[in-house]
Amino acid sequence: MGQSMSHRRETSDCKRLHHLVEAGRFVPDCRAMRVEEYQTMFDAEQRHFWFRGSRAVVQSWLTRAISELGTDGLPSLVDVGAGTGGMLERISSQCDAWGVEYSPDGAAFCHSRGVRVLRGGLPHLPLTSDRFDLALSMDVFEHVEDDVAAMADVRRVLRPGGRLIMTVPALQWLWSEHDEALHHHRRYDKQMLETRLGEAGFRVVRCSYYNSLLLPPIALARFAGRLKDMAFPSTTAPSSDVGNVPEPFNGILTAIFSSERHLLARGRLPLGASLIAECEA
Prior knowledge:
This protein is α/β, with parallel strands linked by helices. It has a single domain (about 1-280), classed as Vaccinia Virus protein VP39 (Rossmann fold), CATH 3.40.50.150. The chain is about 45% helix and about 15% strand. It has helices spanning about 1-20, 35-45, 50-70, 85-90, 105-115, 145-155, 175-180, 190-200, 215-230, 250-260, 260-265; strands at about 75-80, 95-100, 115-120, 130-140, 160-170, 205-210, 275-280. Strands 3-2-1-4-5-7-6 form a seven-stranded mixed β-sheet, with helices on both faces. Helix 3 runs parallel beside helix 10 (about 250-260). The longest helix has 21 residues, at about 50-70.
């Protein structure tokens, strides 16, 4: 019986792909992370404070957007740049969700979680226009050279009035080996992000810095890293900040970061290591 139900879902998903996918649009212009960074992400996504805290903040904004849209039944959602599928798996009960991932390694991790994902990249998503109620994009646009074109392509696949919830790394002065390892083109400030979203045709509903409470130690660590690199230049490939944080420190940092969802429910945060925005197509 379980096999029969699984087969019916796969058949239904295959039929829906005919309405979902636009042929001939897989022409990505984004910089994928190295294979080892996808493995690091997959291993850390369920326990590391950064992923857990960021998911808590993003999911609170997504839940509010779903409530404001007021769709009948589950709203349709595309997770653009699904990574290894951790967030896609988490929101599958809230939305009729699909993912799009450029990297075959990332897509393989998504499939291992049992979530639905298509291969594709920005600014040419392999999706039909006016298709989704919601789009999610967590730390993706910084990987694309022409980020305005990428944002406009996400707007294209949203229905009129649809919402985009997106995050990007903030503050160019925090640039470090972490950004190089993840193949970023830039970090954003709030004005820059709002301007580019507007150029892409979005109306910014709300926008704020976040990852604010941990900004002082993050900034200190980045500056210390620069001094270290100046004194002892590295000959190895750059690596990201994501590593093993022992307990109970990881739990404490998770609680601090996650608490920002309550602060953001009351207002905007003036500075932080990341930015989050909700936009209307």
